[in-house]
## 1
Amino acid sequence: MTDRRLTPDPALITEKTTAQIATPVCDLRRSPAGPRDRQLLFGEIVTVLNTTDGWTYVQADKDGYCGFVQTTAISAADAATHRVSAPATHVYAEPNIKSPDQTSLSFGSLLCVTATTGNFAETSAGFVPLTHLAPQGTYASDPAAVAALFLGTPYLWGGNSRWGIDCSGLVQAALLACGIPCPADSDIQSAICNPAVGPYQRNDLIFWKGHVAIVSDPDTILHANGHSMSVAYEPLTAAINRIAAQGEGSVTAHRRF
């Protein structure tokens, strides 16, 4: 059986055109106006497969996920030169912190920088502080440190941004920022990881049914969770006991990329 998340519906394919996300964040939906499966960020590349009645069926370049986005959320693709490496950034009308801020972008958003003025990068969206950007092709080395950038971010089912993120979205953001390919949902993440041998160590992944956490140190995990409704640290043993007491089962897998 094919996985609808990763396999485009052949009955819906009428074209294959490269485009990009043109809004700070947009929902990738299971059906037009249907439930959110994931989210896509500004500048992320998609393949347009079909457009009907204001909804566009796409497949995301970063992880192969398929779904529907509002047609107004996409535009012609630019060649991204940089990504947002700060938890979030503002986009200004001019290269001046006192100029009007036009929008905000989350960690991981992609931009095509066409020029620099002082401490600002000029992009199609406006001016972005250079200190909040990293060149495409440069990567972080510590997924747990990347995940910590999201501390305090509100929990959001299917979320992928600084405005709201869930457990698997946090893991994906952390690993992609380190140049490690990563799917978007915890069941697929668990399936492609290597079984871990020995004690828990930093950057291991711990899975429960429907949940994943990153190991910060042998006694502590970092995860987006519905208990605190945020991205937070939690003692490992306490988390294992709490999740079991809630009737959500025991740890199902200990994995290592």
## 2
Amino acid sequence: MVIMMKHEPKDCWVNGYNPDLLRAWNANMDIQFILDKFSCIMYMMSYVAKPEHEMTEFLNSVIRDVKKSNVNERDEMKQIMQAYAKHREVIGQESVARVCSLPLKKCSCTVIFIQTDEDGLKMSLPLSRLKDMGPDEEDVWMSGLPEKYKNRLATGDFNDMCLADFASGCRVLYGRQTEGANAIPLQNDKGFIQKRTKGKSAIIRFTRFSEKKLPEKFYRRLLKLYFPHRTDDELKSEYHPTYEDFYNRGRGGSVKQYVDFNRK
């Protein structure tokens, strides 16, 4: 079944559109009602996986040549990837953008990813510094945003600030930026930060966990983002050894109220 929009004869060549979206999009649009989920999926996938017969034949020849050479799987995938990147077809707009070094995407707001998982990815110190460390040294990781948050100032608004507010309202300074008048030093020589200007708060992103399937990771994320702390040990207690229990019953129930207020 297909819904046909009623048109006046003079509008027979006008696509379906929405006035509000048209002002925001400022380009051609052709809107249709979706009645069949499967047809919608097929329509989108046909755009994502447009057939490129010449590219398929070229990649098959590259794969055959690579199989004949004595290379490992990593180098094999690297050669195939380079062949695809250098020979794939691109539209005129993308060609112009790449030749002129124009950004293919941009955002008016800064986006910050916050690591909340205990087993999250970490960056090690440079090899030049690791060589000078002893074999029993444990502090071999670079300080990320959570570590800088834990070493924030203990005065003013910083003391009661949660990690989400810290990441959204402050930015980390590097190099000569640390010499600016608005640079704020962190404790324990963990670097410098600067408060973002009003109206320029960053958008925070984080890994989402299922409350039913992974309750501990779910509640750790809530506490990590929205409960002020200086160490991870403060996200639990002796009487509330799990993140879920500490969230629901910690400090007489005030932890949940604090987290929910900051989250809102």
## 3
Amino acid sequence: MANLFEQNRNYLPGDPELDLIGDRPKLAQWRHKGIGPSYYKLGRKIIYRGEDLNAWAEANRVEAGNGEV
């Protein structure tokens, strides 16, 4: 798989690259619901690792022609 995010980089909510999967409110909603990519919570700071974002994106990949809409 081609990586959508840099593997060895950390991303913070508000980084424009994260808009690829969801805006800041959407990511907050996913964290609240316990879904979405893995993250670290250090105090009040949220950190996403590129490696975790790529793994989450791959897990949500849909093959063409499998009947899903």
